[in-house]
């Protein structure tokens, strides 16, 4: 498996808020027996929005939460009071997350900039209150719109795991042992060079909740930039890490010279791509458990003088200073992520709330059942959802509309006789020719 194949993938379900219903209400004043309509509008449902955040590195949090629901809009009330709109729900995902519709596989967005946002489901439009329905002939309208349901869908989130930091160094210095001590990765560890043949990724999590992705990269040797020991392949992976963690065997178990080791690795980096030397680099002196304290001090001092870099002495074996190293890398990763955050995100425009389109001319079916004749159709459902026909004027208006679209004629064709029952939604009436 190549590093390109380390993919985090999760399915989540998102639902936007429903719109609130419009109110049917009439003014009540002293000495005015029947005031005009004053039912306010329902609020719009909240949207669900995904936002890229450079401080995140993985999709792990979605293993624990998969359902996301934005707030509903509130219903309208009397005295023309509009219902409050539902709050939008913003879900933060790592930069680099590709958002797909889980059903169709269609790519909705590629969130590759910090702060970039995409609306994945629209809140339902709030219904209008009866104030909007007064006309010269209908002064006290008992009719209002219901709120629309918010959209919902399953999403697939996919993230190519890119290592924030990479462990580099000679073979056998303890890179795999270190990633095993710091993260969830469980690579093969053995006392011979070139144990690791492909990069391993691990997620390091700190007590603060911060997390980053660490790569264990196979050992480099002299001539790596020319391809020795597949080094050029591994150097390509190193190019993609923002922080380098350079591991040195300070105990020099194989009679190595740690200063020379340091130089060799630095030279291979620079020969492959001089830009690699500009990456933030932490020096890790591993295997300190093998040295007496005096000897260790002497060697660390020498290394410091020679490299002029910050050094973290650790032991992957005894875990001494592992937590300090985790924090140190986190600090470097945090700084490099800060730079990512400076890049401007493309502008975000929130779409309009969702509202079903209602047609004045439409077709429908008459289905004969034991209970009577049922009027059915997509637009019939849409109209019934928009207007609750327990309000008298809404019912009258809808029956008129159905009649214009040929209701009586269709019922007759279907074999309806005087006295038969006809169903429209939950409303039933008797058919007369
Ligand atoms: N005493 C001691 N031994 C260690 C320490 N860290 C690693 N080792 C040993 O060093 C050997 C090599 O460790 P690995 O983690 O496989 O080294 P590597 O750098 O991943 O090696 P390659 O994959 O070959 O590049 C193993 O025998 C480890 O047990 C340490 O801190 N102290
Ligand atoms: Mg290894």
From TrEMBL:
It is found in: Cytoplasm. Gene3D superfamilies: GTP-binding protein OBG, C-terminal domain, GTP1/OBG domain, P-loop containing nucleotide triphosphate hydrolases. GO terms for cellular component: cytoplasm. It is an enzyme of class 3 (hydrolase). GO terms for biological process: ribosome biogenesis. Residues 356-433 form the OCT domain. The keyword GTP-binding applies. It comes from the Bacteria. Mg(2+) binds at residues 176, 196. Its EC number is 3.6.5.-. Keywords: Cytoplasm, GTP-binding, Hydrolase, Magnesium, Metal-binding, Nucleotide-binding. PROSITE patterns: G_OBG, GTP1_OBG, OBG, OCT. Its cofactor is Mg(2+). Residues 4-162 form the Obg domain. GTP binds at residues 169-176, 194-198, 216-219, 286-289, 315-317. SUPFAM superfamilies: Obg GTP-binding protein C-terminal domain (SSF102741), Obg GTP-binding protein N-terminal domain (SSF82051), P-loop containing nucleoside triphosphate hydrolases (SSF52540). The keyword Transport does not apply. GO terms for molecular function: GTP binding; GTPase activity; magnesium ion binding. Residues 163-334 form the OBG-type G domain. An essential GTPase which binds GTP, GDP and possibly (p)ppGpp with moderate affinity, with high nucleotide exchange rates and a fairly low GTP hydrolysis rate. Plays a role in control of the cell cycle, stress response, ribosome biogenesis and in those bacteria that undergo differentiation, in morphogenesis control. Monomer. Belongs to the TRAFAC class OBG-HflX-like GTPase superfamily. OBG GTPase family. This is GTPase Obg. It comes from Pseudothermotoga hypogea DSM 11164 = NBRC 106472.
